[in-house]
Specification:
By secondary structure, this protein is α+β, with helices and mostly antiparallel strands. The protein folds into two domains: 3-125, Beta-Lactamase, CATH 3.30.450; 187-397, Alpha-Beta Plaits. The chain has helices at 9-16, 18-21, 41-46, 58-65, 69-81, 127-165, 170-177, 202-208, 211-231, 256-276, 278-283, 319-330, 340-346, 378-382, 404-424, and strands at residues 26-31, 36-39, 84-94, 97-108, 118-125, 188-199, 235-240, 243-248, 292-307, 312-317, 336-339, 350-358, 367-375, 388-390, 395-397. The strands form three sheets. Strands 6, 7, 8, 9, 10, 11, 12 and 13 form an eight-stranded mixed sheet that branches. It has a five-stranded antiparallel sheet with strand order 2-1-5-4-3, with helices on both faces. The radius of gyration is 45 Å and the shape is elongated.
């Protein structure tokens, strides 16, 4: 006779299930054939649709609760092969609402009481935790979407700013976008150095060339002139057809003398660059090449925003601007004329020749006009960047100076091509 025969089976099962009676989980005990013998009160309250469950096959109970078939198969497989089951999330609809439970089950073994050998398990209600996790994931997803929207809008703004920057001088662009108030800054009276240039007989050129070719020529010219102006610290006011208006001394200034010297340096570099590009433009149909006249003046001007509420222009106004236009018009091709105010600032640094004393249209007194040669300092001249080289056997001329590194790569490719041709033509091959 076995020890278990001296005890009441029902009492022993009740005693073994004592710890689960008041558990906050939905606990059950089934025999080895997965037939439910005991459930606690929470099991019945969790799943009222089941009623008072006894002697029911546990997988059938899971099916009645609406547990997916794949999870039921997982339960049967794991409890038989592994002796334990852990299903982290089971979605069970109760009263039209989605509830989430974890199911933990394990086979029990007792050498004394064989009727305690079976399956013991519990459902843990994870619904609140699941909802919190879902809300967190939704917030994270929304945060990701918001970040993507912000990045997209930032990229669009950056692209817009990049395109807008091409229509403004960098100094003006920086000045506008650094404004903290709603109203643009008012104009001011400043002593500026003004530069104005145009292409000689540009009207004849525009009449003889095809529009597409003319656009290529004028764009390359203006691109190179703008690059030099910015490199010298000038504020590009505007392009008026082929004319270029640049001023020094606003919004940044290093002093009147330095502003005038920078302007003259810019004009000399522009003149040299035009000479370097003559062959390129001649190949595009400008048989006589391009020749430029330049005028430079120094004087007090009104500078700032001018226009209407609908359209503003950051520009300069005043007699120095008009005088620069007169000097530019009076200059010979490839000459740089300056007024006596500018000459007074650069004298001693730049070689200049007094060529005339004129009374320009709109002015009441005669003015001395000087033609610019070059800087007196040889060291200063040697510091200038040269974009053309002429050797005994090779001539190199950079057409587009906006990306010198790209030009260097092209030269390397040309070198490699020549070396390959040389190797292919070698007698050993």
């Amino acid at each position: 006779m076995k020890l278990e025969d001296f005890f009441n089976q029902a009492n022993i099962v009740d005693l073994s299930f004592f710890n689960f009676r008041n558990a906050i989980t939905a606990a059950y005990f089934a025999n080895e054939n997965l037939e439910i013998l005991k459930v606690n009160d929470n099991f019945r309250s969790f799943f009222p649709v089941l009623g008072n469950v006894t002697n029911a096959y546990f997988p059938d109970v899971l099916e009645q609760l609406g547990v997916p078939g794949a999870q039921i198969e997982t339960f049967i497989s794991d409890i038989n092969s592994k002796g334990s089951v852990l299903i982290p999330a089971i979605h069970i609809p109760i009263d039209g609402e989605d509830h989430v439970y974890s199911l933990l089950s394990a086979r029990t073994h007792d050498e004394v009481f064989s009727y305690l050998n079976g399956v013991q398990g519990q459902f843990v209600n994870r619904t609140d935790e699941w909802h919190l996790r879902q809300e967190r994931e939704e917030l994270l997803e929304q945060k990701i979407r918001d970040r993507e929207v912000i990045e997209e809008k930032s990229q669009r703004l950056e692209n817009l700013a990049t395109r807008l920057a091409k229509y403004l001088s960098p100094q003006v662009y920086q000045s506008i976008f650094s404004e903290t108030g709603d109203q643009p800054s008012a104009h001011a009276r400043k002593n500026l150095t003004i530069f104005l240039s145009d292409i000689v007989q540009f009207t004849d050129l525009s009449d003889t060339l095809e529009p597409e070719r003319l656009a290529t020529i004028i764009n390359s010219y203006l691109s190179e002139m703008a690059s030099i102006a910015l490199d010298c610290g000038g504020t590009i006011d505007k392009f008026i057809g082929d004319a270029v208006l640049v001023f020094f001394g606003d919004p940044e200034s290093e002093g009147e003398t330095e502003d005038a010297l920078k302007c003259v340096e810019m004009a000399i570099r522009m003149r040299s660059r035009v000479a370097e590009l003559q062959k390129y433009w001649q190949k595009l149909g400008v048989s006589r090449g391009l020749h430029v006249r330049m005028g430079i003046t120094t004087g007090f001007c009104a500078v700032g925003n001018f226009g209407s509420e609908q359209r503003l222009d950051y520009t300069v106004l005043g007699s120095p601007v008009n005088l620069a236009a007169r000097l530019q018009g009076a200059a010979k091709p490839d000459a740089i004329l300056i007024d006596e105010n500018a000459h007074g600032l650069i004298e001693g640094h730049v070689s200049c020749e007094l060529i005339d004393e004129i009374t320009p249209k709109g002015f009441v007194r005669p003015l001395k006009v000087y033609e610019v040669g070059d800087f007196l300092s040889e060291e200063h001249r040697e510091r200038r960047r040269q974009l053309s080289r002429v050797g005994k056997r090779v001539e190199v001329n950079v057409i587009d100076s906006s990306d010198i590194r790209a030009a260097i790569e092209e030269l390397r490719q040309i070198q490699e091509d020549f070396e390959k041709q040389l190797d292919d033509s070698s007698p050993d091959n």
